[in-house]
Structure formats: structure tokens, C-alpha cells
Amino acid sequence: MEKRATMHDVADLAGVSQATVSLVLNGVPNARVSKATRRRVQEAAEKLGYRRGKTHPVPAGRQRVIGLFIDEVSTTPFAAPLIEGARDEAALQDVTIATFCTGNNPALEQAGLDMLVAQKAIGAVYTTLMTREVIVPEAFSALPLVLLNCYEKRLHHPSVVPGDIVGGFMATEALIKAGHTRIAHLAGEYQTAEAAVDREKGFRQAMAKAGIAVDESLVTLGGYSIRAGRERALELLSRPDRPTAIFCFNDRMAIGCYEAARILGLKIPHDLSIVGFDNEDLSANMDPPLSTMVLPHDEMARWAVGQLLDGFDGLDADERMQKIKIECEFVERESIAAPRI
């Protein structure tokens, strides 16, 4: 899927807040925005092609509202692109996204559904902050439904998730292309993050394709935090046969690797190459900037909303029950170089 500009991109280019972009592009009357600022926002939107995505007809007999149900919003930074992507796609048809943070509480979910059904809403997007398998409550059968960042064991609804296996493959491949063969992987926690399993699969597939044997002593399990990354990297990098490159489950663990390298007097990427995953905001501001994978949450949310706006007319059962995986983009910065040892 082609990556489309977001309201955040327009705001960055125009040098204004997202609120100002919303006021200008939605033509809010009496908004206190100068003519120069309006022109700057409009030019930025034109340059980026914002609001020029696919046109979806709003299903007949429905109000211009879609409900987005999400379990959590504060435990990771990933809620924003999921919500904003849905909002931006819906805005193309002047549709409003009503967001319900429920914590998987059935009573809160039912209250939100009752409101949407009473309003004859277009449908609902059932969202989880962490990619995982879910059992969708029966109550959601009251509206057309798409699953975002989650999926069912037996498909009853269309769903979209990130391509974590391909992402792990691409991250590892970047290190291999730089000349590395002794590559460590700081894996995540299998019990709480299905992405940890898939990203490690991608790591192993890339190594196998390149004909490089995986040194199992360089694959360490169970972690997601800066502290875990630092502790595990210190152990690996203190070995006489240390790795020359590390692929980390996420950017936070990569930060820990940076700290470990500095403690041991190793320079990145001169002595050690590192690739992260998630493209958190801080990754571009690290020293040196971290090469990483971008989670396609914005594109995923846009796809989910587009499915609801298209209705499911003319689709057979297989098409309605599809599970889509959207690839993660590799962002090459300055944390990878050829090995010296």
C-alpha cells in the first residue's frame, strides 16, 4: 500500500499545529488563522497530496460516524497513529471517528455500541494496541466490523495487522548487506508480544537465505525495555567473540544497546551496528540516528476505515474474511556500517 500523507505531515511541513491544519482544511468558520498561515497549510497539503486518497461512497442510510474501539491508549506510543490514520481517512468523506477507550470492559463496549447503533453509524473498528489474537464479543455483530491490529483464529471479520515477519527479515537483511555475519538478536517477550515471535522468524529467515548459521548464544529472549536492552547487550558485547551487529526487537531495547556500547567504549556504527523496530520519535534523535522499521499503523487504520466506507457489497465470503498484512518500511539512518572485526 502506498504511504499517504497524514495531518501530522502537513503540520510539520507548514510549521503549524495539527489543530491549525484541521481548522484550515475543514474550513472552520471564524477560526483565528491568518491568511499567510492558511496559504502555508494549503500549499503543504497540496505538495503532500493530502486529502487526495481513494474516494469511498458512504453506505446508504448511514450517518457519517464510525466507532473506533481501542483497549488501551497510554501503555505505548502507538495509539496516536492508529487513531489519526482512521480520522484522516474518514475525513476524506467528511466522516467522524468516535473513539472509545474501553480497556476491554464489556459494559463500556456495550455502551459505545448502543450509541452507534442508535445513530445508525457506518460501522466499527475493533482495535488493540498490541498485535494479538482476539475473540470479538458477540455484541459487535450489531454493526459492520473491521479488526485493526488484531485478528481472529477463525476469521469472521476482515482484519489488518503489520507484516512483522517481513519486517524482521528486512532489518536483518540490512545488516547482512553491510557485511555482517555475526549478528545478535535481542528478542521480545513471547508471552506478551506476538510480534516478538514473528520478528525473530524474519531474523532467522534472512540469515538462512544468506547462508549464515545462527549462533543461538547470540539470540537472547524476554525483554522490551531500555534496561533489558542494556543488560543483555552488556553481556553479549563483553564476550571475546562479541557480535558485530545487533537487531533489536524494538527501539527501546536499541537505546539500551547504545548505552551498553558507550559503557564498553564501543562506537556506533564504527565498532557495532544496530537496527531497531517501531520508529519511535526518539529514534531519529539518537546519536547516531537509529536505523529502524516503521510500524504501518497509519496505513492499517486507513485501510480499516476504507473497508467500512466501501461497505461489503459485491464481496464474496472469502473477500470479506480476509486478513491483510501491511509491510513495515525500513528507515536507514546512521547506525549501520561495515564490520571491522
Molecular structure report:
Residues 5-66 form the HTH lacI-type domain. Pfam families: LacI (PF00356), Peripla_BP_3 (PF13377). Keywords: DNA-binding, Repressor, Transcription, Transcription regulation. InterPro entries: HTH_LacI, LacI/GalR-like_sensor, Lambda_DNA-bd_dom_sf, Peripla_BP_I. It contains 11 helices and 12 strands. Helix 9 (251-263) links the parallel strand 8 and strand 9. Among the domains are: 1-52, lambda repressor-like DNA-binding domains (434 Repressor (Amino-terminal Domain)), CATH 1.10.260; 164-294, Response regulator (Rossmann fold), CATH 3.40.50. Helix 1 (7-14) packs across helix 3 and helix 8 packs across helix 9 (251-263). It is α/β, with parallel strands linked by helices and 341 residues long. The mean pLDDT is 89. It has a 6-stranded parallel sheet, with helices on both faces. Strands 7-6-8-9 form a 4-stranded parallel sheet, with helices on both faces. It has a two-stranded antiparallel ribbon with strand order 10-12.
